[in-house]
Amino acid sequence: MAGEIVIQCPMLNNTNYTVWSMRMKVVLKVHKVWETIEPGSDEGDKSDMAIALLFQSIPEALILQVGNLDTSKAVWEAIKASHVGTDRVKEARLKTLMSEFDRMKMKETDTIDEFAGKIAELSAESAALGETIEEPKLVKKFLSGLPLRKYVHIVVALEHVLDLNTTSFQDIVGRLEAYEEIIFCEEEDEQNDQGKLMDSQSYQDGYGRGRGRGRGRFSN
After folding, report:
1. Going by C-beta distance under 8 Å and a sequence separation of 6 or more, which residues neighbour residue 53?
2. CA geometry: angle at 20 spanning 15 and 25, to 5°?
3. 195: Cα within 13 Å, side-chain hemisphere
């Protein structure tokens, strides 16, 4: 049919389960079959459609492992188990993630968007393991992880005017991105001014030397 939108299934690999599961959930919802997985329904045709979509998005080796399962919910849970692991493995991974979260600091070479992306990615992985990091905790970690030398004034100001327990993560990131843009423009203007000053000084030095040589050449 002309104009029909084709939605491709994302391909699962060894490192992208968290993002894959989020994308695949949307694909299954678009095809009206997500309810066969959550909460889990017994509609055979819809379950078969969901399985067909899942099989398009996983490697052949994994298809061989889950191919004998009868429902889409069972297939989904088997895929999840193969990548998330047992409860003990999940607990160990969560402990590692929380340790990484506590240590997170923005690097001097990072942009606000990049640092926020790292926090969001870790949060998504934690949620996939069953542990949701509350938004106020994300907001406070984001602010505390910023380099104080560069952002101390805006951080202090935001802590005074906003309730960090109700401010969304995206809101606080947006405010810092706007501030980052202001800093960038100011630094760029300062560099341009310094360049003009150096050019002017070089011209004056050259002009002065030229006049000095002239006096020496024609003096008695």
Report:
1. 9, 24, 27, 28, 31, 33
2. 160
3. 6
pLDDT in tens, 167-185: 999 999 999 999 999 887 7
Rounded CA gap, 115 and 138, in Å?
Answer: 12
Residue 35 DSSP one-character state? G
Please give the backbone phi and psi of residue 12, each rounded to the nearest 5 degrees, phi first.
Answer: -80, 140
Mean pLDDT for 179-203 is 64
Render 155-220 in DSSP notation, one character per residue.
HHHHHHHS-TTTS-HHHHHHHHHHHHHHHHHHHHHHHHHHHHHHHHHHHHHHHHHHHHHHHHHH--
Query: With a threshold of 0.90, does the pTM exceed it?
Result: no
d(CA 180, CA 185): 9
Residue 168: left (phi > 0), alpha (psi -120 to 50), or beta? beta
The DSSP call for residue 59 is -
| CA gap 200, 203 in Å, rounded | 5
Buried b (16+ CB within 10 A) or exposed e, 41-55: beeeebbebbbebbe
Q: What is the DSSP letter of 39?
A: T
Domain ranges (residues) in the chain:
16-87, 104-195
